[in-house]
Amino acid sequence: MTPPGVRTGCRYAALNNRDWLNDQYTHQGKSDRMIAAELGCCTSTVWYYRDLHGIPSLNLKQCPRHRIPRFRIRNPQLAVELGLEGMV
User: Which helix (H) or strand (E) holds 21?
Assistant: First the structure.
């Protein structure tokens, strides 16, 4: 049975799959914009289906992609030697 509000003829069938959308957004850390670009739809369409499926919005601290530790190398010479010029 189709949940209320889910369009069965939707061009973006992946959005009807709650498990797929939850994995993309929550576990893989993709934003609505990234998912929309992948599917070729509007960001608001992705948001609509997330809301429909009850998938809550994440802030940056909750997003897996943003859990990577950030650091800066204070010694520019060391950064060049390590090939990390952009980390200075």
Answer: helix 18-22
